[in-house]
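Slide 14.
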Amino acid sequence: MAEYTKEQFWKLYKALPQELKDALFAEATGDDIYEILEKNKALGSLEKVVELTGQVLLGILPPDDFATEVQQQTKLKKAVAEKVAREITRFVIYPVKP
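Slide 15: predicted structure.
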């Protein structure tokens, strides 16, 4: 996964529809991710999963690659990573997907 500078991030952010901008920084988004990770006993991966979720919302990471990236970058077991990614997709990404 390529690294993006702050300038590149903000350029991508400014081009997003308002609904995605709102979702990126919404307290509810963070709460949903936290609850999903807590339920799956994966809170140690919170920072990385939040980052990956943001990449999906920005269009940097294809949603189809989300579960694989969660597993690779967090070292969670495959089943847990897939469940976390599936739940985040359902409760965070899907509701704002154009």
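Speaker note: The mean pLDDT is 91.
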